[in-house]
Amino acid sequence: MSEVRETGSRARTRQAIIDAAIEVLGQNAAATLGEIAVAADVGRTTLHRYFSERSDLLTAISEEGQRRMNQAAERARLDDGTGAAALRRLCQEYFDLGDLLSLIFNEPQLVTDPAWSDDGECDPRFTALVERGHRDGTIDTELPPTWVQSVLWSQLYAGWSYVAETGESRHEVLRLVLRTVDGAVAPKG
């Protein structure tokens, strides 16, 4: 996209395209730019004015994904309460990202951007959450933060796959995901 200052209308159109792309590609990773333009209620020419190449759109989606994930973590209040309670809130917030999660699971190259990279390490806020759970007795001390993070992501993937395969309500599937994550990280007897 050119270095033109975005007006309110341009910013809204750009965001509508990104939102539509997340929704459409989250449901069908092979969707065309034309399908995205239809979903965004813009012409294909308009879409190309904002994103001349598919790779430009994917870069914008990656940036939007990072923004949404950070906002979800903020809403989860990772520093509040027990470690397990914070993990539960984070799981709920991430689950609500729906189409974005589906897209990330189906297009893992979106998260290969260095800004997403953690070199196999957890976000420091997540590590602190798990360590707090170890200290307060709500997360099994034998489970390292990277393992807990893997459990979280695998259950989010399982949940969204289950929604897509069965048509079960998001509310019910979130209940199942939370029950599974709670049980997986709880100290054993």
Automatic annotation (TrEMBL):
* Regions recorded as binding DNA: 32-51
Output the superkingdom of the source species: Bacteria
Q: Which UniProt keywords apply?
A: DNA-binding, Transcription, Transcription regulation
Pfam families linked to this entry: TetR_N
Where's the HTH tetR-type domain? 11-69
Supply the name of the protein: TetR/AcrR family transcriptional regulator
